Structures are given as structure tokens and as C-alpha cells.
Amino acid sequence: MSEAKIVSELRKQHATHASHDGHNGRDLDTDHALTEAMQQVIQQAGGDPGSMTGKRIREIIHTATKLMADGADDGELKLVSRSVKELRYALKVFRPYQETPKISIFGSARTPENDPTYQAALTFGKLMADTGWMVITGAGGGIMAAGNGGAGREASFGVSIRLPFETNANEHIVGDPKLINFRYFFTRKLMFMWQSKAVALFAGGFGTQDEGFEALTLVQTGKASTIPIVMVDAPGRSYWKRWDQYVREELLTAGLINKDDLALYRIYDDPKAAAQHVIDFYRNYHSQRFVNDVLVLRMHRPLGDAQVEALNDEFADLVKEDRIAQAGPMDQEKRYRDLPRLRFIFAKRAYGRLRLMVDRINEFDVLNTRT
Q1: How many domains are contained in the chain?
Q2: What pLDDT shows up at residue 164?
């Protein structure tokens, strides 16, 4: 059966479902004829329907076909279709660089080149690129241009948004294949956090505040991995110090956040110190992932037995059951299997405390190096 005939068959089946059973249609999960048709499409596209990749692709197709049975209108279909297209293309652009660490840099598009904050962002971008990182910005002017300019074209990504008053990418990323243009803020914001191992915030307006609070919220709730979030003022400036004062006086005092949440970010008035903090965060700590309820913290180098015991004493509140243990990879882990690990059943709360635990792991590494 040709791909065109398979698609036609899918449409006929869903037309039948909608007319016989209303918008909800039949239970498509048990529609074997439809499943078979989708598997043929995957096979004709060069995939293996029996592989995990094939299964995931079938889920995507399945979800798309359900929109017909749901009676989705044209506007809804455009939103879903364009969103998936944007994400697919963005992932394609980022994929060749997936092993290179990246930092998202946020700040005002209105900051002029002679402003000390612009110069701080320029220095910060260069420092990160010099240590092997790539930077991601919104591709516009101001702080975004400074971040891309400091890092240079080869070490830069631009994730642009189509706005009526900001339509041009900065000179450091325009025309580069690593420039991605988004229609939707939510797909763009997803790529910022998905692809970043750190976030740097410079002075900015609503957009900068939005990105900063979103990064903090995602890490605070465990929806994003624990990463360093640095807020950088130019020497002598106090934008982020005053922001921190508001957070402490209004949010913390009222009990709207916990004291440990303050550990999720760091404030600097020196771009060199901010860059060093990001680099030091990955001194020994490498990455994290969940395997069911087990949190796995990967490291570059193992800890001593006494250091693991110290973690158990200091961070017992993070452990739901049993203890923190140093161990090898679990069967479900496919990546970084050569790295040592800490693992424990995480209580899935107090992510600010988890951030402090990462700091302690890195501090132990400093002591190990000195001795």
C-alpha cells in the first residue's frame, strides 16, 4: 500500500469514527487496523515500527489523528502543526552540538553598546566561549548582541521570535545556520531551557524578568534539571541586588518561597566571577536524571566513603527512603555509563537544598584535589 493510500485510509477510518461515535470516536488504542496503517507509514518512511523510536513516532501520529476525532477546528490544528514543526526544526539545528555545554543569556534588547552592562555581557560571552561553552540568545540587539558578539559566531545560537517591533537578528548571528526563527514564545522558551546547562541574566525588562522567573520556577519544581542561574550586574550597578531585596522582603518574608529557594540563584557584579561560578558548578557534578523514583547524580570523579557519609548526614531530609549511595549506572541508563554516580530515592521537594548538595559535591572535589 502506498503512503498516499495509507493516509487516505486513515482519513476514511476517522471520518467513520466521528460519524458513528461523535467527536470522541472509538478507542483508537485498540483500533488494530489503524495501528497497522501507522506502522506501515513508519516503515515506508525508513523507520522500524518495533523499535522505541518507531513506537514514539506512532504515538505522535496517533495523537495527530485523534485531533480529527476530537473535531479540532482549523485554528487548533494550525497551532499544533506549527508548534511541532518549530520544535522538530529547532532540535535538528541543536542536535549536532548536544555534547557541547550551552548557556542561555537574557537581557534587554535596548541596552546600548557604550553601557557598562553591555560590556559586562560581552566579556561574559567571551569568557564562556573561551572555556568551551556555546551561548544561546534571543538573537536581537542589546544584551543579546553582546552575548553573541562576545562568544563569536561559531559559538553562538540565536533563537529569534517574530515581533512587529524587533524583526532583525543581530550582526553576529544573522545568516548563520544556528539562527532559528520562532512564531510562538512557548516553543522558543522550551528550547532555551531544554538546551541550556546554565542561565545568565543581565538587566532587562518584562521579557528578562519572565525568562528569569521561569528558569527559577522550573528548577524549583524539578521540571528542569538543577543548573546554575547567575544574575549579573555591571560593576557598580545594583539591578539584581535590588531585585534580590524585593524577593527577600516580599516573597520570603511572606512565606511565598522557602529560604532554600534563595540558593537557586547567585548574584555577581563581576562577569568573570559569574562565569567562574558556572564553570565551577560542573567541576565534579556532571548531570542528573530520574529512573522512576531514584535520582541519579552523575559525577566526573568518585567521592570518598567519608564524604558520602557526610552527604547522608547533611542532606538526610532529601532522602525519602534508605540512604545516598555511590554506585554504577542503572540498567535503564544508556548515556555516560562510565561516570561514577550517587543515587537515592528523592523526596522530590526542596530543590534549593538539592542545589546546595551539588555545591557540596564540588567542594569535596576541591578538597580531594588539594590533598
Answers
A1: 3
A2: 61
133-143 tens-digit pLDDT: 999 999 999 99
**If we measure between CA atoms, which residue out of 170, 350, 358, 352 comes closest to residue 281?**
358
pLDDT value at residue 60: 94
First-to-last C-alpha distance (Å) of the chain: 69
Domain harbouring 127, CATH code: 3.40.50.450
C-alpha dist (Å) from residue 17 to 11, 24, 71, 307, 310: 10, 8, 11, 61, 61
Q: Is residue 302 domain-shared with residue 174, that is, in the same domain?
A: no
**What per-residue confidence (pLDDT) applies to 26?**
47
H-type alpha helices, 247-291: 271-281
Cβ contacts of residue 159 below 8 Å, gap of 6+? 90, 136, 137, 138, 139, 180, 182, 188, 191, 192
Alpha-carbon torsion 293, 309, 350, 283, what sign?
negative
Are residues 236 and 150 both part of a single domain? yes
- pLDDT interval class at 23 (50, 70, 90): very low
**pLDDT surpassing 70 at residue 33:** yes
pLDDT, tens digit (0-9, with 9 covering 90-100), for 246-261: 999 999 999 999 999 9
Q: What percent of the chain is modeled with pLDDT above 70? A: 91
Q: Which residues, 6+ apart, have CB-to-CB distance to 262 below 8 Å?
A: 247, 248, 252, 352
365/238 same-domain check: no
Q: pLDDT tier at 307 (50, 70, 90 boundaries)?
A: very high
Tell me, what's the pLDDT at 163? 72
Note whether 247 and 126 are same-domain residues: yes
Has residue 201 been placed in a domain?
yes
141 three-class SS: coil
* Residue-wise DSSP of 350-367: -HHHHHHHHHHHHHHHHH
Amino acid identity of residue 120, one-letter, is: A
Distance CA 24, CA 299 (A): 48
Residue 366 in domain: yes
DSSP sequence for 213-257: HHHHHHHHTTSS----EEEEPPTT--HHHHHHHHIIIIIITTTSS
